[in-house]
């Protein structure tokens, strides 16, 4: 009689233990936070990807490069006027069909290279020196889709490895609403855009600058100054430049011939493969926005945006360079607000309409929150570092 009773008691203990374990597991599940839900990546639209990959400006760019290599300025009347103001051109790269020597002025060697100082004979011809010819040809040859370029950008900055932390400082007036200056300067490297002023604004934008990022239109304006001065942040701050027009390679060559010796920091042109990657990404987001907001076919985007002139902004490429070389990226001064100035340092009212800033903002959101869904960037196999946007 005792043996069955003992067996029943053992079974009862087993049931109690199993029940307690089950209750404990259920309790832990009820109390523990649920795992974060990751939304599935959206399906990329094949039509938008195809259209974003098309470059309607390639044919005209090819003609411009060929004309420069043959010793002629690009045929576009607008560009020619920009270079022929008062019939003055870069003396470093011009000679006369008649063999006339160009008049020189200035007693210092660098003065002989100052731009817009010499009048030219009626029949002038560009003389492309071998180094400039190599640079121009190499830049255009590299202008292809290769998203792996993100992993090789450290050589562009002439740095041995990745930078621990970077701040990219835009020019939006929203910077004046916060005092991020000390936070910006605490980063290992600070990128600034298009020579925006820092004097008088340090509390909001910081005072430190490690890299100056400009587009070639800015350099073209600098090239009109004696000595080609384009270094408002100090003589030792490297300038990174992306090319808007092939003819601006003349500015790069002329300015590097003077400013690298006088100011100690040469001008580096960004890898053309990065240009192509940026162009495809922003065009995809612009196409997507156009279709969503207008309900029209994506093929109609070209007419609405002047496709041959459409371009990403300087700020977008600066962010992409930072993503390629920094372990952590902080972004300041991007975005706009009805109660803020357009630019913190000027009275400019609006930007050029060849950019689609709303499309770029959509890209920034994905880059920060879900980089794996960014089209074309997800082909690179590159691990995007943390990117934080400050408003």
TrEMBL record:
GO terms for cellular component: Golgi membrane. It is a single-pass type II membrane protein. Keywords: Glycoprotein, Glycosyltransferase, Golgi apparatus, Membrane, Signal, Signal-anchor, Transferase, Transmembrane, Transmembrane helix. It is found in: Golgi apparatus membrane. It holds the Pfam family Glyco_transf_29. Residues 1-20 form the signal peptide. It comes from the Eukaryota. GO terms for molecular function: sialyltransferase activity. Belongs to the glycosyltransferase 29 family. This is Sialyltransferase-like protein 1. The lineage of its organism: Eukaryota, Viridiplantae, Streptophyta, Embryophyta, Tracheophyta. The gene is STLP1_0.
């Amino acid at each position: 009689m005792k043996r069955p009773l003992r067996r029943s008691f053992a079974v009862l203990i087993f049931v109690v233990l199993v029940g307690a374990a089950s209750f404990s597991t259920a309790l832990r599940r009820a109390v523990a936070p649920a795992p974060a839900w990751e939304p599935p990546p959206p399906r990329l639209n094949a039509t938008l990807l195809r259209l974003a990959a098309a470059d309607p400006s390639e044919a005209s760019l090819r003609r411009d490069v060929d004309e420069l290599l043959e010793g002629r300025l690009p045929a576009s009347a607008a560009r020619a006027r920009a270079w022929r103001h008062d019939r003055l051109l870069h003396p470093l790269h011009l000679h006369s069909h008649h063999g006339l020597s160009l008049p020189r002025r200035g007693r210092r060697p660098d003065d002989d290279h100052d731009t817009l100082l010499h009048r030219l004979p009626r029949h002038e011809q560009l003389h492309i020196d071998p180094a400039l010819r190599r640079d121009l040809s190499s830049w255009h040859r590299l202008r292809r889709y290769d998203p792996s370029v993100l992993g090789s950008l450290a050589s562009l900055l002439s740095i041995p490895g990745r930078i621990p932390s970077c701040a990219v400082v835009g020019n939006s007036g929203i910077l004046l609403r916060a005092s991020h200056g000390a936070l910006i300067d605490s980063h290992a490297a600070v990128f600034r855009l298009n020579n925006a002023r820092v004097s008088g604004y340090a509390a909001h934008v910081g005072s430190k600058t490690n890299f100056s990022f400009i587009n070639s239109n800015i350099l073209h304006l600098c090239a009109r100054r004696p000595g080609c001065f384009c270094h408002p942040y100090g003589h030792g701050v490297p300038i990174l430049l992306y090319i808007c027009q092939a003819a601006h390679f003349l500015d790069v060559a002329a300015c590097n011939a003077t400013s690298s010796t006088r100011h100690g920091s040469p001008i580096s042109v960004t890898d053309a493969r990065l240009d192509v990657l940026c162009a495809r990404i922003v065009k995809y987001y612009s196409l997507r926005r156009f279709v969503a907001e207008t309900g029209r076919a994506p093929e109609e985007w070209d007419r609405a945006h002047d496709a041959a002139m459409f371009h990403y902004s300087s700020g977008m490429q600066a962010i992409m360079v930072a993503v390629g070389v920094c372990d952590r990226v902080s972004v300041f001064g991007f975005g706009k607000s009805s109660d803020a100035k357009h630019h913190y340092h000027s009275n400019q009212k609006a930007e050029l309409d060849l950019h689609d800033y709303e499309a770029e903002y959509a890209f920034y959101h994905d880059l920060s929150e879900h980089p794996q869904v960014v089209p074309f960037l997800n082909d690179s196999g590159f691990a995007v570092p943390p990117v934080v946007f400050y408003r």
